[in-house]
User: What shape does this take?
Amino acid sequence: MKIKWKPPVSPLGLLQEKYWPDEWRILVCCLLLNQTTRRQVDKIIDEFFLKYPGPVSMCMASGEELHALIQPLGLANKRVKTLKRFSHEYLTKTWQEAKDLYGCGKYANDTWRIFCRGDWEDVSPQDHALNNYHGWLRGYYESRQTA
Assistant: This one.
């Protein structure tokens, strides 16, 4: 997919902002954040993307090495399967939205729509951090219209 817009950088420091415009990395952040905390993900994310900079390297990743790296997040067996299958589908499947890809639910799809598509006005996020960014974004554009 082609990134259509550049989201403004907020003071919130979401991982998705840090990895924009890399659509695959934005979605991987969502997968890593599922069922764990940002604090836990922060501990492994730099090494993760050094070792696996894109979907091809993830598809070719050793399951054992990947497991060892992401084990601190919990659910490592499931995450290995999800990251590998997601990356394979990202490369090979004809998909229209992130939710069409393995492992991507509402949170990943909302994130993708906000950061990659720019249709944030039509998204109603339920994740607290994404909801905070969405509210900040609304205020950001409202203040620019009145200025």
Notes: Residues 53 and 115 are 19 Å apart (CA to CA). Helices lie at 15-19, 23-33, 38-51, 55-59, 63-70, 76-92, 106-117, 128-146. The chain has one domain: 15-146.
